[in-house]
Structures are given as C-alpha cells and as structure tokens.
Amino acid sequence: AVAPRRAVAVRVAAWATAVVATAGALAVAGVARRGLVNVSSFGGTTDLFLYGWMEQTGSICDKINCTACASLSGCRWCPRDQKCESAEIAASVCSTPITSAAQCWEQYCAYEMEEFLNPRRFDAKAWVDQTTWAQVRPLHPFRTYKTALGVSGMFDLSTGRSLWNASEGSPVPATGFTIAALSDWGTGTCVARAVARLAAATNPEMTLHLGDVYYTGTIDQYMTNFAGAPRNIWLQGVSFPTGRVTTFALAGNHDLISGFGGLYMTGFARTGQRATYACWQTDTWRIVALDTGRLSYLTSSDGTRDIFAGETDAPIPQEVLHWLWSVVNLGDPKDKRGIMILSHHPPYDAFGPSYDGLARQLDGLLPAGREVVWFFGHHHHLVLYDKLKLDGLDFVIHPRLIGIGGFPGLVLEAPKRKEGLIAYDARTYQTMADLDGVSRKVGFNGFAKMRMFEDQVNVDYITADCVDGDCAQGLSDTQSTVVAQESLVPDLSTGKLRQEWSYLGPELTKVNQPSATPVEVEGKREAEFGQQYDASLHHYD
Questions:
Q1: DSSP per-residue codes, 407-423
Q2: What separation in angstroms does the CA of 393 have from each of 332, 359, 387, 521?
Q3: Angle between helices 5-18 and 21-34 in degrees, nearest 10
Q4: Phi/psi of residue 238, each to 5°?
Q5: For the chain, percent helix, then strand, then coil, each to nearest 5?
Q6: pLDDT per residue over 176-222, tens digit each?
Q7: How does pLDDT run across 229-238, given as a tens digit for each residue?
Q8: Cα(309)–Cα(321) distance, rounded to whole angstroms?
Q9: Which residues contact 298 (CB under 8 A, 6 or more apart)?
Q10: This prediction's pTM
C-alpha cells in the first residue's frame, strides 16, 4: 500500500530527530528525489541512511540503463522504478531486482521471469507473503449455468451459439477452425506477451487458457496479467489473446488461492464466459473444459483455503459432474464422437505428481474402452505421451502437458517413470542468477495450435524462438518453432481415436516409440514421492 505523503513525512521526521541530523537530512533527500513514499519498504534505518547517502555521493551502481547496471558486480536493476542499486539496497527497495543483462529485455513488463523462481530467497518470500494474505480472502460462490439464463454450457464450436441437445453440433467450416491453447500463461511477463502474440498471429477462432494467473489470481493480477492494464508508469500489462468466436479461461489452483475474485470479476469480463466449464460440439468432436481448480485445496467451512498443506487430487465439483451426466450426456454409449478433455491438473505425470481426481470421476461416466485426448498444464513443461490406461480405470487417455504458456519451468531432468513417455522438451532457454548465488535453468515457452478439418484435428506444439538466435536478447514474438505435430481422428463406429505423430523435432528428447496398444501406468501423488520429488519444480508455482 502507498502511504499518504503527510504520514510519510511525519515518520521520516520522527526518525531524523532520533538520529544524527545530517544523516537524517541525507536520507530524506534520497527518498524525496526517488519519489518513494513507502518508507517501511526499507530494511531498517541503516538501509534508509545508506540509501540517502548514495544518492548524495554517487556509487559504482549509478547507471542509467539496465544492461550497464546488470553487468557490474554487486549492482542490480529495479524495474519498478527503473533505477540501478547496489545489491544490498536493491534487496530492500525492490522485491525482485533483475540480476543479469539477459533479463533486461523484460524490464518494461508488469513482472519479469526472475520473480517467480521460488527456490530463491526473495522469490520464496514473495510467494509466501502473497499466499498467506490471499488464502483468507472471501471465497466467491461457484458459478454454474443454473444461474445463467438461456445458456446450457454446451455450444456449437463453429458459431459459439448455445446448444440444448447433447447430440447437436454443426460441421467444421470447410476452411478449417483454429484453436490456440495456452496454459499457466498468466505471469504478466514479456515472455507471456511474446507467446500471446505468437498465438494471436495464428488468427484463431478460439483461444483457451488452461488456468493460473500469478501470483494468486487477485483482481489486480488479472488486470495486469490477463486484461493488459499497466502495473505502474513503467511496467506494462499483458493481454490474453482473444479468439474470433470464443475466448475461454479455465480455473487453476492459483485462481483458487485468492477465492476466484480475479477470474470471476476481471477474467470473465474479458472472455464473456459464464462459468469455468463448458462443452463445444461439432458433428464429429466434443471439446470439454472442466474445472479442476475449484477443489484443488482443502477449504474450511468459512472458505479459507489451506494452500501450504491442503492439496487434493483435484476433482471437479459435483455440480459439474451432474452437468456432464444430465446435460452433456457424456456417458452416452451411442455417441461415438471424439472427446477432447481440457483441465488445469495433469491426470498423469512421468516427472512429478499426478492428480487423478477427475480421471476417476470420468471412469464412472465414460463407456469402457473409450479414448480421449487430454490437454492440461499445472506443471510447467512440454511433455507428450503415448495412449495410456491408468491403473484401475476402464478408459484410455492420450495425455498432453502444455504448461509452458508463460511461467518459467525449470529444465526437466530424467523422468521418474519412462513407461508411455514419447518425448519432452529439456532445452535451456536461459540460466538465471540470483542474489543468493543460486542459478536456475529455465526452459522455452510456447503453446498448442489445433487446426480442425472435418473430423481431423491437427495439433502443432510451438515454442518461441530466441531473438535473432540469441537467447540473451529474449524470446521473439514473431518467430517460433514447431517442435512436434500429430493428427487425431475419431472412429465413429467404436469411439476410439486414430492418432499419429507426423513430426517429433530434434528439439525434443525422445524416450519411447508409440505403442500399438495402451500402455498401463500408475500415477503417483505428491506424498508418494517422498524425498525423490523436488517440490520446487511446481509449487508454490
């Protein structure tokens, strides 16, 4: 919060009276010239004195631009006020300063990638502070289609019109229909902006966000990181790309942390949606978006979420399950159209914990032997799987992890399990340093482009290129690489999917060849990993 100038003046004057007059005058002069109004942001009176002294005398960190500042040992650039500070002062006046010249290209966006690497001391503090505050905010009532007059939650894919018959759905236009799917995108960084512009350049009829606006999905964070409002006079907001027919945002666990105020109030205003679940239909496909974020943390009777120790297996609310039964009629054995599931949480993960709550709910609904393709995020990587049969379930999934929309995913190491794993992206985009001497390698960001023609869905997995081939200049918003391609066609007589990988690029690490039959796997929850699992790979992120 910004304190009134009068209150700040009183606080500074009182402090100056208690300290040597000259030191107080220098400190006040430094604060005044910077235009800072919140003295409590300093790390005590010593820092305040040092800050004022450096303003008067100058220092080696007195540089006018980010690149020059970051190239000097012991100096850090603060994007918030576009100033170069010593490392000690930067830690007090700037929550997460830029630590390397390679991050200077992000200095004018609402946030920069370095702010979200929670294993680092200053980043971890920001996560804990924001989460502790947000998890006790009021929990908004769950939005359903019962309160949305004239809307069933089923829509014609090509036109966006509401449907009332579960068997309806017009053919895909002869010219095709493009969907851009981004997940874990809402960081407000220049990386997210680059990915958004690449997705917008595909001229999509539909854009989908598979959940999570950071840090905690507040209204302010949705304004800057989703709707594009500036954070201050220096830091520009980032806008989620809109589709020409439909724009839709799913709920993630970070949206739940603050009680869904940001998604319901600001997110829905941008997308025009009524709820966090929906079904879009053609004559050959059903695309079903489901809310695994709402119940992803244990919630007390007063609505408080237990973020630090209350993670669940991420099922969908009973209202949504009932809607799938009674409105969408997803379990109709006569309906053999292809099914595409969209969620935030992964039903299976070879590198980290799985969240099988939704999969087990669907097992009681889908006919035995049905196949679905399933796109999800939550973990911030690109991982492609074979067709899998999860332990104890009677239907088959083709899982696709695309959580690379905007969050800095730490570079993947060896998978915990290799069964059913086709390929993953383990490239390093940048190595980010830290005030603590901790370096973190982060991967490339991107999205999935789906192009529908009649009954076929062609999927391109796309990552942003480095500017002019030099990753120290950041990610390009005009140049990208297709790292994998596949096609999916439903068998309208059996309900199975004919899937084929047409391209797996050299950028990916390949593991297994596709199998002719489903690979049986068993997912593990976070608690089952014990010391083998590095929690920093996903949460608080």
A1: S-PBPP-S-S--TTEEE
A2: 18, 8, 13, 10
A3: 160
A4: -125, 135
A5: 30, 25, 50
A6: 999 999 999 999 999 999 999 999 999 999 999 999 999 999 999 99
A7: 999 999 999 9
A8: 26
A9: 305, 306, 310, 311, 312
A10: 0.87
